[in-house]
Batch of 2 targets.
Target 1
Amino acid sequence: MLKTLIVDDQAAVRTALEVLFDLHGLPTLVAGSPQEALDLVAAEDVGVVVQDMNFTEATTSGHEGLQLLRDIKRLDPDLPVLAMTAWTSLEMAVQLIKEGASDYQAKPWDDTKLVNTVKNLMRLRELSLENTRLRAGGARARAELARKHDLRGVIYASPTMHEVVSLVVKVAPADVPVLITGPHGAGKEQVAEMVQANSRRKTAPFVKVNCGGLPDQLLEAELFGAEPGAYTGAMKLRVGRFEEAHGGTLFLDEIGNLSPAGQAKLLRVLQLGEFQRLGSNVTRKVDVRVISATNVDLPKAIQEGTFREDLYFRLAVIEVKLPALKDRPEDVPVLAEHFLQHFQPEGEVLYLGASARQALLAHDWPGNVRELQNRIQRAVLVRKGATLEAADLGLSEAGQPEKSASEPASVPAALSEEEAQERATVERALAEAQGVVSRAAAQLGLSRQALYRRMERLGLSVERRLKG
C-alpha cells in the first residue's frame, strides 16, 4: 500500500500530521531531515510527500525545501510533492510549481483541505503507477512477440495494434485464407508479409498481385495465365500467378476491385484448388494459400451486388481488421522517429522539433502510415536545419495541411508512386474520350462500373467535354 511521507524537523508537527492522516485512513512514514526523507523515498512505497520548506533553526528562505524537492524529483520524477511552510511568499510558490511541486499550502493548515488534497494526489499517483505498469507490460509483451515471431519490421506502441499483430502471428501457421481489411496506406501489405513469414509456407514462393491496377482481361491472364492467341497481343504462353505461387502464398491486393468473371474463377480455385488458363479448356491443379486485402466495404459491396457473398466467406476464413492511424495515436510518434532515422542523411542527426511533434499529434492522417512516411521524407528534404518543424512536414501546428502551389489540390496526399501513375493513365484516357466514361473504360479494358470504382479510389471526378 502506498504511504504518505511526512517530512518536518519539528516532532510535534510530524505527530499532528500522522494522527490526522491516520484518522482518514492514510498510512504514513515520517522523516525529520531531508536525507532521511530521501532514504525513505528510495526504499519505501511512497505515494505522496508532504514536506516542510525549512529544516534549520531560524531559517525561513525555503531554499532547503526547494533543494529537497529537486532531489526527490531526481529520484522519482512522478512522485507528487505537497510543500508546507509558515513562511509563505508568492515568489517561492511560483518557484515550487516550476520545480515540479504538486501543491503548496501554508501553516497552520486546514485539516479538511489538506486531507482532500493528499487523497487526490494519492489517487493520481496510483493511476500513474498503473499506467506505468501497463506501458511496461505492453513493452514486455511486444518484445516477447518480436522474439518469438518475425514481425517484418512492423513498428507500433498501441494496444490496438498489438492485438492485431498478436492475431496475425497466431493464425499465420493455420493454412487458411486470410482477408486483411483497412484503409489505404494503413500497412495491409506488411501484415500480409507477416502472415507469410510466420506460416508453414515461409520458405515457399510469396507472389503479389494488385487486382486494382490491371484491366479485367489482363487481370485474369495475370492470375490464371493465358495460352497464345487467347486475347489481342497474347503472342506466347503466359504463366499465371497462381502457378508461380504453387506450394506457397498468393497475396491479392485490392481484391474488392476484382471483376465478376475474375471473382467466379477465384472462387473455383479456392473451392477446388483448380483453374483454367485463358484460351484453354485444360484444368490445372494448384496448392496455394490466398491472402487478400481491400479497403472496400465488402459486406456493403455484397448488398450492392458487386461482390460475391460466397467468395467473401471463402476469403475471410480469418479477417484481420487493420485500424486507421488516427485510431492508434500512440503509434504516430514511434513511427515518425522510425522514418526519421530511415531518411536522415548519413553522418547527420536530425530531430523533431516541438511544433513538428504537436502537428504530428494533431493531424488526423487520412493517408495513414503511408502519409506519415511521405511527410517525414518531405521534411528531411526541405528542412533548414537539424530540427524539423511543422512547416517542414507541410502542416500547421494545428495539424492542418498547408497548401502547395506545386501540388494540385485534387490529388490525394496518400497516393503511392504506382497509384499516381495509375491516376495519370486514367486521366489521359478520360481526356482522350472527352470525358465519356464508357469510352474511356473501353480504351482501358474495364467495365464502366470498374472504372468508376477506380476513379473514386484515385480521387478523380469527371466533367464531360461537350463540343461547341
Target 2
Amino acid sequence: MAQDGQKGVAYQTVDADYFTKRGLNKYAGVASLWALGVGAVISGHFSGWNLGFATGGWGGMLAAGIIIAIMYLGLTFSIAEMSAALPHTGAAYSFARTAMGPWGGFLTGLCENVEYVITPAVIVTFITAYVVSIFGLDAAYSPLLWIGFFVVFVALNVFGLELSFKVTMVVTLISLAVLVFFWVSAFPNMDFSRWALNIGVGPDGAPVELPEGGGPWFPFGFAGVLATLPFAVWLFLAIEQLPLAAEESIDPKRDMPKGIILGMFTLIVSAFMIVLLNPSVANVGTFKLSTSLEPLLDGFRAIYGDSGVVILGIVALTGLIASFHTIIYAQGRQIYSLSRAGYFPRGLSVTHGTHRTPHVAMIVGALVGLGVMLAIWFALGAEKGSATIGSVLLNMAVSGAMFSYIAQAVSFILLRKNSPHIARPYRSPLGVPGAVLTIVIAVVTLGYQAQDPNFTKGVLWVLVWFAVAIAYFAVYGRHKLVLSPEEEFAQSGGKSEYRTH
C-alpha cells in the first residue's frame, strides 16, 4: 500500500487482472462523438425548456437561452482543451483530480454523478408523459413504463459499444430530422406576435394568457430573465459528457475537441429555432407551452390535427429516446471511472466479459435513479407525484450540473496556471476569461434555481446522497484508491504519458 499523507489518501497495489477485468474497447471517431454529444442534449429541445415561459415569457426565455449558451461555450471550450490534454474516462473527476487533488476530484465527480444518475430519470418522465398522452393511458401506470424503458435501454448499452454508438447515431439523426421537419412545418403556420407574445402578468404576479397576443417581450422584466436561466440549461445540459468517452475514442486528442465544438454549434442552431417556432405556431402559444410536458407534440397537433397524433407522437419521442440512451451510456462511464480508481466500491467498475461495457455501473446507476423516482412518486402520492416529479428531478439534475461546471471551470483555470507544462493539443480560444464567465453564470443560475419551490424538495435528496458518499470516502474509500490512468497522470503532476493499462 502506498501512502500519500499530504493528500490524506492511500493507494493499494492491485494485480494485473484488476485492469483486465475493467477493459474498454475503442470505436468512436468525430462523427460518433458528435452524435453522442448532440444525442445527450436533444431531448431538451423536445421537452423541459418550455417551462421557463412561466417565469420569463418569450423574450425572457430567449435572453436566458443566450446567456446559458455563453456559459456553455465557455465550458465546452474549456473541457475541449482539458479532454485533449487528459484523455481519461474520468472527465470532470479527472480534470479536478489533477488540478485540485483527490478530494477535489471526488467532490467534482460526485456532483457530476448526481447529474448523470438523475438526468435519465428526468427524461424518462417526459418519455412517459408523451406515451401516456399519445395512447390515452392512465398516469398511474407511469412507474411500470419507467421500469420498462430503463430495462430496454440499459440492455442496449450493455450489449456492445459498437451497437450503442450505432443506436446513438441513428436516433440522433432521426431526432434532428424530426426537428427540421417541425421547423419547416411551423414556418407557414406561425404568427409570432399573436401566439409567442401571449403572456402577461396578472395582479398577483402570476402569468396570465393574453387572448389577442401582442404582449411584451419581457413581461417579468430582467428578474424574469434570471429566473428562467435554470430552464434554459435544459437546451444544452449534458453536452459536457463527451470526455467520458475518451478511452473508447480512437484518437481522443484530435477528435474530442472537434466532436464537442461541432456538437455545441449544432445545438445552438437547434435551440434558437425551437424557441422561436414552437410557441409561434397558431393555437399553441407561449402560455399553453409554459405548463406542457409535450411541447413539440402540441406543435404537431396544432399543425396536422389529432388524426395523426399517434404517428406524430411516436416521431416526437425520438429526441427523448436519443438523450435517454446516450446519458445512460455516460452514467455508466462516470460511475465506472470513480469505481476503477477506488472512490466508489471497486465492484462497480467490472466490465462485461464479452462486450467490454461497464454493465454493473449502468445497472446500479439505473436502479438508483429509479429508486429516487419511486420514492418521490409514493411520498407525494400518485396524482401529485405525476404532476411534480419532473420538476423535482429537473432541479436535482441541474443543481448537480451547475456545481460540476463550476468545479470544471476552476480546474481549467488552475491547470492553466499551475500546469503549463502539460501538452495541450487543443487550446480554448476563450481561455481563462471564458472559464470565469462560466463560473459567474453558473453561480447566478444556482441562485435563481433556489427560488423554485420544487428546488428544496430535490436538493434535500442531493444533500443526503452527498453526505452518504462523503462519509464513505472519508472513512473507507480514501484508503483504498488505485492507480488508475486518471490517478497515475495526476500523481505525476501531468508529466506521465497517458495510458489506459
